[in-house]
Amino acid sequence: MKITNRLQLPEGIVKAVSTEKHNGPGCISATTLIRGVKEVLLMERHWDELTDDVADRIWAIWGTAVHSLLEQEGENEFSEVNMKHKVNGITVTGRIDNYDLAKGIICDYKTASVNKIKVGDFSEWRLQGLIYAWLLRKNGLKAERCRFIALLKDHSKIEAVRDRRCPQNPVYVYEFPVTLTDIMKIDRYIRDKIEEYVRCQALADDEIPACSATERWEKAPKYAVMKTGRKSAVRLLDDQSEADRMADKKGKGHFVSYRPGESTKCRHYCLCCQFCDFYNANTNMANTDSEELMEAA
């Protein structure tokens, strides 16, 4: 991958955000398993053709710094625990930020935005945690609970007072117990995902099925109740009739604007989208205004 530097930032920053391929030959990581197979394979195949800019990767520095600061180990705690287990000829790997051996608690550190907490979608974190738990148990170790400790990079005490949906602290903890049912389900998920990954390796780029709606972070279409002179929506609704009634009730100057759905990850966060036929076939991905995305979130 080529790292560009359109703002001419210092070389030290460039080196800090530079990256290498995430997976070694015959391996697939826990964080890769939660992505779409199409994204994973396109990233692997076109790695040397991909580009990203230093400015767009700047938060990676903070994430790396946070992990470095939190690597201290307690009496029964271990940091940067590397685990692996082979499935269908592919080695599943995972690096656990912090593991309490005595209690069987998996802890992962995240840097996140306040908006993620407000939206409340932790499905990817849950999958990641359960894959770690699966790896631990496959290696004969306890896995009783997963904890994700998120440091919120844009937290504001003032906004937290104004908007009660905002987390009230700059640190947010998402946690859940690991049950036998969870392990059975994640085992099936891992095996199905690897089977699909192996099968699709023999396919051409455009023959690989598109990532699922969940993997694309798909947002459904919305109907925005707008007010003349105001840029942001008064309310975002799923049903047009409900939006029409609200606009009528609010009276003069209010109207309804349709906002098409969008695969947010494809549009904003997928580095290999230029090689993806699904992305290129969906012209709405290039036309959705970023402000509308923030409102929809």
Instruction: Determine the oligomeric state from the structure.
Output: single chain
Counting helices, strands and paired strands, the structural category is alpha/beta
End-to-end C-alpha gap: 31 Å
The largest β sheet comes out as: 6 strands, mixed
* pLDDT < 50 runs, ≥5 residues: 286-297
The tally of strands reads 13
In round numbers, the mean pLDDT is 89
Order of helices and strands: EHEHHEHEEEHHEHEHEEEHEEHHH
CATH topology label of the largest domain: Lambda Exonuclease, Chain A
Beta-strand residue percentage: 15-25%
Number of helices in the DSSP assignment: 12
Radius of gyration: 22 Å
Helical proportion, percent range: 25-40%
Which CATH architecture of the largest domain is right? Alpha-Beta Complex
Shape: globular
Q: What's the number of structural domains?
A: 2
Set out the fold topology:
Layout: E1 2-4, H1 11-17, E2 27-29, H2 30-33, H3 37-45, E3 51-53, H4 59-69, E4 77-87, E5 90-100, E6 105-112, H5 114-119, H6 123-138, E7 145-152, H7 157-162, E8 171-177, H8 180-200, E9 218-219, E10 222-227, E11 235-237, H9 240-250, E12 254-259, E13 262-263, H10 264-268, H11 277-281, H12 290-296
Parallel strand pairs: 1-3, 2-5, 6-7
Antiparallel strand pairs: 4-5, 5-6, 7-8, 9-13, 10-11, 10-12
